[in-house]
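Table 4 source record.
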Amino acid sequence: MMAILVQVGLKMVVTGKKLENLNQTEWEELDENILSTIQLCIANTILQEVLMEKTSSVLWKMLESLYATKSLANRLVLKQRLFMFRMNECELVRDHTIQFITLLNDLKNFEVHIDDED
C-alpha cells in the first residue's frame, strides 16, 4: 500500500507532513483522497476495524498498530506457520512455492530468526 502512495507522491500525507504550499482546504481534499485510496485497498474485514478513522495518517497508524507490530505473539504465529507449512495434495507446486516465499518474507520483515534448536 505504501508503494502506491510513494509512486503517486503522496506518502507525506500519510506521515502527517503538511506541505507549505497547500492551504487547509487543499490539504483536507488530498487527505480525503488518500484515505479513500487506503480504504479501497484493504479487505472488508479489516476495513470494519478502522472505518471510523477520519484522516489518512490516523488510519495508517491504526493499521500499523494492528498488523505490523513485531510483537512476540506475531513472531510465534509466524514460526508456527513455518513449522506447520505443508503442501496439500491437489496444490500446484507454483502456488505452494509462492506461499512459502511469502512466509519467508514475512519472517524476514518481522526479524524472526530460526535456530537449529527450533
